[in-house]
Design brief:
Structural class: alpha/beta
Distance between the termini: 36 Å
Radius of gyration: 20 Å
Order of helices and strands: HEHEHEHEEHEHEHEHHEHEHEHHE
Shape: elongated
Number of helices: 13
Largest sheet: 7 strands, mixed
Strand content: 15-25%
Helix content: 40-55%
Low-confidence stretches: 1-10
């Protein structure tokens, strides 16, 4: 949303939305839409009783601190953070302004809250619980590609990705898998990483989620298919974009639920008193079109467990 338009709004409550991703990118915009739609369902009408201020870092982590500072200076009532890095920046900007996480992998490991049930401080929201699912994702890769020996892991500089990789490394030996981590910071890194992955004769690729990864989901699916690699993701949107499969929570559904926290805080609740919510349902999505393009048969035992099959 243009800053000029934001300045003309007359809402009685001000909510800041902080994104690592870039404005205009579908995955980034849909995250904001999910939060705003959730608030609209709770009676908050944009430019009537609520005013949104959007800040996009364009995938540049170094910009997040400045943007979070702008929201604090503008005296928003709540900052909604999309992703781990945005949450970290918002917490650096203020230790008192309410912060609502709209999907963070593990807020306890990240140091945002001491516990999910008693967050304390100024931060609460919804968790994606991604950390605990990584071994399961490796297991699914092995089920679909039983002969797999080498799995490439695509990550970003997010510290939580380093923690996730440790969990994967711990789980890999019992599945007979060797892992190699490829850290990317942007689209140029991504193309080079997949070229190296192909040269390294990986049997599959597992992609860790982040706002900038989601912004590049179409390109990742194209590169995985180019290298003839079965691919595993956290969110179904990646499978819909052409990835082979995904296993995880409903990303936009989780972000939509962040609106409940914003609503409660705007009505007087304190973040310290609102337990962090965890998803209770995880979806397995398989893209059969991609499987056929790879010449990869999907075992009936896996297909039978899928929540969604893309033809």
């Amino acid at each position: 949303m243009p800053l000029a338009a934001e300045g003309q709004a007359t809402g009685t409550s001000k909510v800041g939305l902080l994104f690592l991703g870039a404005a205009g990118i579908d995955s980034t915009e849909r995250s904001g839409i999910a939060v705003r739609e959730g608030l609209r369902e709770l009676g908050w009408i944009e430019n009537q009783n609520i005013h949104f201020q959007h800040r996009y870092a364009g995938g540049i982590r170094g910009r997040l601190d400045q943007l979070a500072g702008e929201l604090v200076q503008n005296k928003v009532d709540v900052i909604v953070t999309i992703g781990t890095e945005a949450t970290r920046a918002a917490r650096r900007a203020s230790s008192s302004l309410p912060i609502v996480m709209a999907g963070v992998g593990d807020p306890v490991r990240a140091g945002f809250v001491p516990s999910l049930s008693r967050p304390g401080g100024n931060t609460t929201g919804v968790s994606l619980l991604n950390q605990e699912l990584w071994p399961k994702r490796l297991e699914l890769i092995k089920e679909i590609v039983p002969a797999a020996k080498r799995v490439a892991v695509v990550s970003t500089p997010d510290p939580q990705h380093a923690e996730s990789f440790k969990l994967l490394v711990k789980a890999a030996p019992r599945l007979g898998l060797e892992l190699r981590n490829f850290v990317v910071s942007g689209r140029g890194d991504l193309d080079r990483a997949f070229t190296d992955i192909g040269r390294g004769r990986a049997d599959a690729v597992l992609v860790q989620p982040s706002p900038e990864i989601e912004d590049m989901r179409d390109r990742i699916a194209q590169l995985a298919e180019r290298e003839r690699l079965p691919s595993m993701f956290a969110f179904k949107q990646n499978a819909e974009a052409g990835g082979l499969m995904s296993y995880g929570a409903d990303l936009y559904g989780v972000q939509r639920r962040a609106a409940i926290y914003v609503d409660k805080i705007l009505k007087g609740a304190k973040p310290a008193d609102l337990p962090v919510e965890q998803p209770t349902k995880f979806e397995l999505v398989i893209n059969l079109k991609t499987a056929k393009a790879l010449g990869l048969p999907i075992p009936p035992s896996v297909l039978g467990r899928a929540d969604q099959v893309i033809q």
